[in-house]
Amino acid sequence: MMRAIAAALLVSSQAVVAQESIVSRNLPQAEAVETQTGLGAVVRAIDTLNGNVEDITLRNGESTDFGRIQIALGECRYPADNPSEDAFAKLTIIDSRETSPRFSGWMLASSPALSALEHARYDVWVIRCVIE
Prior knowledge:
The chain has one helix at 2-26, and strands at 35-37, 40-47, 52-59, 63-66, 69-79, 88-95, 103-108, 122-130. By secondary structure, it is an alpha+beta fold. The relative contact order is 0.19.
């Protein structure tokens, strides 16, 4: 019985190692993107309870309140060769009813679901960087 269990574990671990090595060989390599820092960002905030939608312009280091949440922008970066292509904003979002931030990190305009605010009432995402 013990030999059968040991053999099964050995076979399954070898299969996992083989899968990992095959998958890692097929992954595309991420390319570094040269970025520049914008003066601020435009974020869209939605209160899903009352349907309020607002585009908010924040300067780097600035914060604002939207309903119960406070949205703070650390900085906004954009691709140096194509400013309209994407925006990467460092945001901290705090619900006034909680002690720790609901979101703290980088949000990407092109992939808002990749790094999103998890909140039952509010939704926030980056639209673009403010360049001028």
